[in-house]
Write a structure and sequence with these properties.
alpha/beta; 8-stranded mixed beta sheet
């Protein structure tokens, strides 16, 4: 199974590497607009959202809007290999390069309990129509999602071009409740 996942990761990474920054910005802006209009986002008081890297969906518009709306905003913070927690931010300026050069708050930032989170926005390399997501292989999100799934709505943010027929998955892999692409929610017409 690991070989199959790694092969798919390599294929998707190669595909993403060919996408221009302009196209990534366009796709990210459309995904952000859909999220900001969604009922789950509008109802959420506490939002957990990844901070996108250069090749991922840019989530800055979502983070900025959530802060402006007065929502409690938290982002991933790696505490150990394969382990992360949600740390609250009150400004975008609180984000500095952290583990894997991903923007994160200071370790002293307040930790937000998983059960306090209403909406979790998740990264992926690829996703499928069954809402399975292919991550980067560290298991950080699957471990964290096991704590969230009873309380939070989970939405995976994925480029439409990275929707695949089948994401290989195992028992410990946790599917998102929904997948958002630049065309809207996957499977919703």
């Amino acid at each position: 199974m690991m070989e199959i996942k790694n092969s798919l990761r390599a294929q998707i990474k190669a595909k993403i590497a060919t996408v221009s920054q302009k196209e990534t910005k366009r796709v990210s802006a459309r995904i952000a607009a859909h999220i900001l209009q969604s009922a789950a986002y509008q109802a959420a008081k506490t939002v957990f959202c990844f901070v996108g890297t250069a090749r991922e969906i840019d989530t800055m518009d979502i983070l900025k809007d959530a802060l402006a709306q007065g929502k409690t905003v938290c982002v991933p913070f790696c505490t150990d290999k394969g382990i992360m927690v949600a740390k609250q931010i009150t400004t975008i300026g609180a984000l500095k390069p952290g583990a894997y050069d991903i923007l994160a708050p200071d370790a002293a930032a307040q930790t937000v309990a998983p059960q306090a989170i209403d909406l979790a926005l998740l990264p992926c390399l690829a996703a499928d129509a069954n809402r399975n997501r292919l991550g980067y292989g560290g298991g950080y999100y699957d471990r964290y999602l096991s704590q969230l799934c009873r309380t939070a709505t989970t939405i995976c943010l994925c480029r439409a071009a990275c929707i695949v027929p089948n994401v290989p998955h195992e028992a410990q892999d946790i599917a998102a409740e929904q997948v958002m692409t630049e065309n809207g929610f996957l499977g919703v017409t």
